[in-house]
Please model this.
Amino acid sequence: MENFSFFPEQASTMATQIDAIYFVLVGLSVIFAVGIAVAVIVFGIRYRKSTSVDRSNPLHESMKLEFAWSFIPFLMAMGIFTWSAFVYYNINTPPTDAVEIYVVGKQWMWQIQHPLGKAELNELHVPINQPVKLIMSSQDVIHSFFVPAFRVKQDVLPGRYTTLWFEATKVGEYHLFCAEYCGTEHSKMTGKVIAMEPQDYQNWLSGGGGGESMVEAGARLFQDNGCASCHIDGEGGRGPNLHGIFGTEVALEGGGTAVVDEAYLRESIYEPGAKVVAGYAPIMPSYQGSISEGGVLQLVAYIKSLSEGQ
Ligand code: HEC
Ligand SMILES: [Cu+2]
Model:
């Protein structure tokens, strides 16, 4: 398959699972298509007008036959459905021990931030044999993160976080494409994923140009933007204490609750009025336009870190 350029390399654990479904579906289609075509041709020749074959006792109805050709395909379809549903569930459930990497798509590039501070453009370095989870957002329009060799593709939307996970199995460089038309230079919104031995990945991470980690950068933004003046560590601040909130449910003004996840934190920063925490006045200003999506990801990483070990 490697030399057959219509077919991308299989370089993730997902690739083999998805290709298996693909080949079984193609195989079944070929079997049925060929079977029916052969029957049409054979009967067409055998029973053409000029032949003298036995035409007595034509079969008019057969319960057995009709049952068989309804029930067998039904079982096959349900089998494929169940199998695909398992794979689909697997694709959409990132393992909890996955390495988290943040991705921001914008016209026309991919910005990547590693938790320990390394940032890169249109390149994504990942370790092999380890699940990697991407937390993605867009600065402008809809993009789509597509790595054919891993058989993963996920839309990247403005105003929302989407996630995607994979586990690379082979060291190498793989194409990264934007698979959603996003403007003039969409076709140039490409990059590469570089899968490395875990040890090489660690070396690369700790190599030069690292700077501050995402949590450190978030903590700095938290100070620089005056968040700390309302969100103080203890009780009695004008805003809620942000320690330990990640993953919990908060009560909202006007009833209802919200789960504190990445999307909730992002919304709290860009549209503080959308969900107001019970017991607080809606005085928090919006940071839409003053803090970039990349900055919000750093703040989210920082606020998440305030809940670690709790
Ligand atoms: C003027 C005071 C003020 C400033 C400045 C401020 N906030 Fe807030 N913040 C609040 C208040 C009040 C609430 C609760 C009401 C609400 O949800 O809007 C809140 C809510 C939040 C929440 C939701 C908390 C929860 O318990 O669910 C987050 C997250 C948050 N702020 C983050 C930030 C960040 C990050 C900054 C700086 C970029 C910031 N805030 C700046 C006052 C402030
Ligand atoms: Cu794009």
Notes: The mean pLDDT is 89. The longest strand covers residues 99-106. The domain at 214-305 is CATH 1.10.760.10 (Cytochrome Bc1 Complex; Chain D, domain 2). The chain has two domains: 1-47+94-210, 214-305.
